[in-house]
Write a structure and sequence with these properties.
There is one protein chain. By secondary structure, this protein is mainly α. Helices cover 78% and strands 0% of the residues. It is built from 20 helices and no strands. Helix 5 packs across helix 15. The protein starts with 13 loop residues before the first helix and ends with a helix.
C-alpha cells in the first residue's frame, strides 16, 4: 500500500525493531513494579497468569498496532487513516491515531520528570551524594531533590534534550544505532548485578520470593494486576509501537517479532527482580516498598555492601538507560507526524517537539515544589497527566484499535499484512474481536474503581463464560470460516 510520495525509512533489520520495541517496553515500571507485584501476588503462579494475559491481550494488540503501522507507513494518525481508507471506511477512525499520539506525548511529559530521578541518582552515586544511615535519611535526600525546582528541572531537561538529540538523528542513525548498544548494555548490567546478588547472601530468598508457586495467594486482585500490567508494559495504545511498526521491513514476521518482544520484556523484568531483591533481602529490608525501594532502600543497601558503590553506579546507569529508551519511543509518533505532514526536517521537528515537551514537563515538575498547592479536584498537574493517560486514553485507544481491526476493516487487509497461516490468523481474529476487548474492558473498569466487591471476586468466572460464548459465536461466523478456508 502506498503511503506517500517518498519511501519511508525502515529499520536496517528485524533485530533493530526488536531492540527498539523492547526498549520502549522496558521502562522504570519493569525495574521495580513487575518484580514487586510478582512476589506480592503468588510468585510463579502470578507469572503464569501474567504470561497468559500477555498472550491473550498484549500480543494480539501489539500485532494489531504493528500491522497498522506497517500497512499505513506513517504516524498513528496517517497510518490508521490510510488503512481505513483502503477498506472504504470513514477517516473519522483516525481519531484513534490522534488519541494515541497525544497519549504518548502526555505520558512523556511527566515521564521525563521520573526519568530525571534516575539520572539524578546516578550522579549522586558517582559523587557520593547518597550518604545516609537510615531509610529516613534517604527519604530526606529524595524529598530535597524534588523540592528544588532547579535541580529537578535540570535533570528533567537533560532527559528531554538527550531524547531529542537521539530522535533528531533519525530512525537508523539515531534510534536504531543507540538502542543497539543501550539494550545489550542494560542486559549486561543486569547480569552483573545478578552475579553480585548471588554472592550477597539473599539470592535464595529472592528466588523464592519471585518464583515460588503459591496459588493460594493469587487473588482476584492479583489477576487484575497481571492483566493490567500485561497491557501497559508493552507500551500499547501510546503511538510508540505503531510508529515503530511503520519502519518495519515488509519481509519481517509480525507474529514472531511480537512474541520475541513480549518474551524479552518479561525476561528483563524478572532479571531486574533477581538483581534487586537479593540486595534487599541481604540487608533485611522490606521488598514491598514500590518506588521507595529504588530511591530509598537500595541506595542504603549499596552503601552497606562490599563494592556497593560500583554496583550502585551500574544499577542507576541501567535505570537511566531503561528510562531513555522508553522516552525515545514515546516522542517518535509526534516527530514522525510533523515530518510527514508539516514538511519539517527531522531535526526541526525534534526540537520543536522538545520545546513544547519542556514547557509541559516543567509544569509537571513544579507539582513537586513551587506548584505543590496548584491542584484541581485534588490532583496536581503531574497526577492529571498520569490519570488521564493510564486510566482513560490507553485503555480506550487499545479498545478502539482492536475493535477497528476486528469488526470494521476488511479481513483481507490484516490477513495479507500479518502473513499468518489460516489457523493462526483465525486465532488472532478471534482474540482481537472478543478476548482482547473483554480484557481491556476489565482493565478499564478496574482502573476507574467501578467494580462492585462481589463482581471483583467473581470476574474471572464471568469473563471465562463471556469468552466461551464469544468464541462459539465467532466459530459460527462466516468471516472466520472464510479465514480458515483461505490460503
Amino acid at each position: 500500500m502506498a503511503s506517500s510520495g517518498q519511501p519511508r525509512i525502515q529499520w536496517l533489520g528485524r533485530w533493530g525493531f526488536m531492540l527498539a520495541a523492547t526498549g520502549s517496553a522496558v521502562g522504570l515500571g519493569n525495574i521495580w513494579k513487575f518484580p514487586y507485584i510478582t512476589g506480592e501476588y503468588g510468585g510463579g503462579a502470578f507469572v503464569l497468569v501474567y504470561l497468559a494475559c500477555i498472550l491473550a491481550v498484549g500480543v494480539p494488540v501489539m500485532m494489531t498496532e504493528i500491522a497498522f503501522g506497517r500497512r499505513g507507513r506513517g504516524s498513528p494518525i496517517d497510518a490508521i487513516r490510510r488503512v481505513v481508507n483502503e477498506s472504504g471506511r470513514s477517516s473519522v477512525w483516525s481519531l484513534i491515531g490522534w488519541m494515541a499520539m497525544l497519549c504518548g506525548f502526555m505520558i512523556l511529559s511527566f515521564y521525563v520528570v521520573v526519568a530525571g530521578w534516575s539520572f539524578s541518582y546516578l550522579w549522586k552515586m558517582l559523587t557520593g551524594g547518597l550518604a545516609g544511615s537510615s531509610v529516613d535519611d534517604m527519604a530526606a535526600v529524595f524529598s530535597a531533590n524534588n523540592a528544588n525546582p532547579f535541580i529537578l528541572g535540570g535533570w528533567s531537561t537533560l532527559v528531554a534534550v538527550l531524547t531529542m538529540v537521539i530522535v533528531g538523528k533519525g530512525v537508523q542513525e539515531g534510534i536504531e544505532k543507540n538502542v543497539s548498544w543501550m539494550m545489550p548494555g542494560l542486559v549486561l548490567m543486569l547480569v552483573l548485578l545478578i552475579i553480585f546478588g548471588v554472592f550477597s547472601g539473599g539470592f535464595g530468598e529472592a528466588v523464592s520470593f519471585l518464583f515460588s508457586f503459591n496459588a493460594g495467594s493469587l487473588s482476584s486482585e492479583g489477576m487484575l494486576a497481571a492483566l493490567g500490567h500485561a497491557f501497559f508494559t508493552l507500551s500499547l495504545a501510546s503511538g510508540a509501537i505503531l510508529t515503530y511498526g511503520s519502519y518495519l521491513p515488509k519481509g519481517a514476521s509480525i507474529g514472531r517479532t511480537t512474541v520475541s518482544v513480549a518474551i524479552a520484556d518479561t525476561v528483563v523484568a524478572l532479571m531486574a527482580g533477581l538483581a534487586i531483591f537479593p540486595v534487599i533481602f541481604a540487608n533485611g529490608m522490606n521488598p514491598g516498598e514500590g518506588p521507595g525501594l529504588i530511591f530509598m532502600s537500595l541506595p542504603l543497601a549499596f552503601q552497606a555492601m562490599p563494592m556497593g558503590t560500583l554496583f550502585g553506579i551500574l544499577f542507576f546507569l541501567m535505570l537511566s538507560m531503561a528510562a531513555l529508551t522508553s522516552s525515545i519511543s514515546m516522542v517518535e509518533a509526534t516527530v514522525s507526524w510533523l515530518c510527514d505532514n508539516k514538511g519539517m526536517t527531522r531535526k526541526s521537528a525534534s526540537w520543536a517537539t522538545g520545546i513544547v515537551l519542556w514547557l509541559i514537563s516543567t509544569l509537571a515538575m513544579l507539582s513537586f515544589n513551587l506548584g505543590a498547592d496548584w491542584t484541581l479536584a485534588g490532583k496536581h498537574f503531574f497526577d492529571w497527566l498520569d490519570y488521564l493517560t493510564s486510566r482513560w486514553m490507553m485503555p480506550l485507544g487499545g479498545l478502539g484499535m482492536v475493535l477497528l481491526a476486528g469488526f470494521v476493516l476488511k479481513s483481507e487487509t490484516f490477513r495479507d499484512e500479518l502473513g499468518l497461516a489460516p489457523l493462526p490468523y483465525a486465532l488472532w481474529l478471534a482474540m482481537v474481536r472478543y478476548v482482547s476487548p473483554l480484557g481491556i474492558l476489565v482493565i478499564f473498569v478496574d482502573a476507574l474503581g467501578l467494580y462492585p466487591v462481589s463482581f471483583a471476586v467473581h470476574w474471572p468466572i464471568l469473563l471465562a463464560i463471556l469468552v466461551i460464548f464469544a468464541l462459539i459465536g465467532e466459530a459460527l461466523s462466516p468471516r472466520l470460516r472464510q479465514a480458515l478456508r483461505s490460503r
